[in-house]
Amino acid sequence: MTLPPLLLLADSAPLFWRVEGRPFLDYVRVLTGAELRVPQVKAAYLGASNGGQPEFYDLFVAAMEGIGLTRCRSIPAAPSGEDLAWLQEADVILLAGGDPRVGWDAFQAHGVDALLRERHQAGAVLMGVSAGAMHLGLGAWCDDLPVEGEPFPTLGLVPYLIGVHEPPEWPGLKLAVRRMGLPTRGLGIPRGGGVLLHADGSVEPCGSRWWTSRWTWRTGCTNPCCCLQPRRTGASLPRRRWTGGRSSSGLPFKERRWR
């Protein structure tokens, strides 16, 4: 079984993107076979990182309803047995933004981290927004710059450290990568951006605003980071997918045009 792609978003805006008149998230409906499923697809929202603020869960429900998924449940930071049972059967799971440490501590305290790994291997569609995107990666940190003991390890389903909505030079992400050392790589997602991480390891920028990625390293550099770049106004450029491989510097890297 080919695992579905992981969706990493800097914020919740892409949940409501439309592509050629259809919801961007329509791929979720297709992957889960929602139209033919009996019982209906289950969706779970993990809001531990933001303290379970209801307005963010409402955004999730609205996004799911936009693709015809109506069986949604908010899983609290301290889940009940019923909450965990729902999560264990969830076909779609969103990890919300907020404080990465608060969310991760809650996941570990109640065994949610292990359940998320199990659901991913079982073929559930996982999405992470902001801190949730960091949780899907190799590690996370809480402030603009990692402090002592950070980045702390997270799910590791994505083979990158994930930075979200940082300043253009990505100081936090670069410092986090440097602290973890090679061969760690970083992936930066600006505000309003998103990427799909496919099972073959390729990274696909999402949405018409983003057309390519920038990998930066120099001889002896210890913080190779890839960051989405805004598409130039009026430019007509091919979509690209970034896959594994080896660059001239020996670091994993290859560019493949979208087919």
Task: Walk me through this protein's architecture.
The chain is built from 7 helices and 17 strands. The protein is of the alpha/beta class and 259 residues long. It has one domain (6-257): Rossmann fold (3-Layer(aba) Sandwich), CATH 3.40.50.880. It has a 7-stranded mixed beta sheet, with helices on both faces. The chain is globular. The two termini are 22 Å apart.
Give a topology summary.
Blueprint: E1 6-9, E2 18-19, E3 22-23, H1 26-32, E4 42-46, H2 54-65, E5 71-75, H3 81-89, E6 92-95, H4 100-109, H5 112-121, E7 125-129, H6 131-136, E8 139-140, E9 152-153, E10 161-164, H7 171-180, E11 186-189, E12 194-197, E13 203-205, E14 210-216, E15 225-230, E16 240-243, E17 254-257
Parallel strand pairs: 1-7, 4-5, 4-6, 6-7, 10-11, 11-15
Antiparallel strand pairs: 1-12, 2-3, 8-9, 12-13, 14-15, 16-17
Helix pairs in contact: 3-5
